[in-house]
């Protein structure tokens, strides 16, 4: 059995690997780090994640950072759980596409928007980029919504790590989903999963 430690702050990208760990029903130790009080910037934590970011995951003494990498790696370790299509499966191509789409296309504009709208000190915000980032995010939402037409999950009837990656990002700004009923219904349905509820508990 793996010895897993997850360095975690609530309401951050750390929800992604925690949710996946709950789906896999794996035992893990949750180590709470207060990102907002600067605990990631200590010399001790930088030895775990030199980026001074959350999450980080330690498995049998080996450390990994980047939430998407954690989800992809964990899902592949347990192919019998069906959270990632097998490498030779026809759906593997779409699965990898959506896993990368989140961090490369869907997430950046809404993260930039939130930083310059709410997170950064006021003197560091650039209001002029807000509308542009919302427009980019809207285009990305349209692509995801089109994919989810007549589907329960991103790959159809199979819930995978791609759904964790996509839905957690959609949850960052629920107001943006008002024009996309399919995305609103999708995220609300995933919030009812036992593993998700355990992950936010």
What does this structure look like?
This protein is of the alpha+beta class. The chain has 2 domains: 4-81, Glutaredoxin (3-Layer(aba) Sandwich); 92-194, Glutathione S-transferase Yfyf (Class Pi), Chain A, domain 2. It contains 8 helices and 4 strands; from the N terminus they run E-H-E-H-E-E-H-H-H-H-H-H. Strands 2-1-3-4 form a 4-stranded mixed beta sheet, with helices on one face. Strand 3 and strand 4 form a beta hairpin. Helix 1 (15-24) packs parallel to helix 3 (67-77), helix 1 runs antiparallel to helix 6 (161-170) and helix 6 (161-170) crosses helix 7. The longest helix has 28 residues, at 92-119. The relative contact order is 0.13. The mean pLDDT is 97.
Defining key terms:
single chain; alpha+beta; Glutaredoxin; Glutathione S-transferase Yfyf (Class Pi), Chain A, domain 2; 2 domains; four-stranded mixed sheet; 4 strands; 8% strand
Oligomer state equals single chain
Question: What's the number of structural domains?
Answer: 2
Number of discrete helical segments: 8
Unreliably modeled segments:
none
The secondary-structure class comes to alpha+beta
* Major β-sheet profile: 4 strands, mixed
Beta fraction of the residues?
Answer: 5-15%
């Amino acid at each position: 059995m793996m010895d897993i430690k997850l360095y975690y702050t609530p309401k951050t990208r750390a929800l992604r690997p925690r949710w996946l760990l709950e789906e896999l029903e794996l035992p893990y130790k949750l180590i709470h780090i207060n990102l907002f009080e600067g605990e990631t910037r200590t010399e001790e934590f930088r030895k775990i994640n030199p980026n001074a970011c959350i999450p980080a995951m330690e498995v049998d003494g080996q450390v990994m950072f980047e939430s998407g990498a954690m989800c992809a790696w964990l899902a592949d370790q347990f192919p019998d759980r069906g959270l990632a299509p097998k490498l030779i499966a026809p759906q593997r191509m779409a699965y990898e596409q959506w896993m990368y789409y989140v961090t490369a296309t869907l997430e950046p504009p809404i993260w930039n928007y939130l930083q310059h709208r709410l997170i950064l000190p006021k003197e560091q915000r650039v209001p002029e980029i807000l509308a542009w980032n919302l427009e980019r995010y809207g285009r990305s939402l349209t692509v995801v919504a089109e994919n989810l037409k007549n589907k329960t999950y991103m790959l159809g009837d199979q819930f995978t790590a791609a759904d964790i990656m996509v839905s957690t990002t959609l949850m960052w700004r629920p107001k943006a989903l008002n024009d996309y009923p399919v995305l609103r219904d999708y995220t609300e349905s995933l919030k009812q999963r036992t593993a998700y509820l355990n992950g936010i508990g």
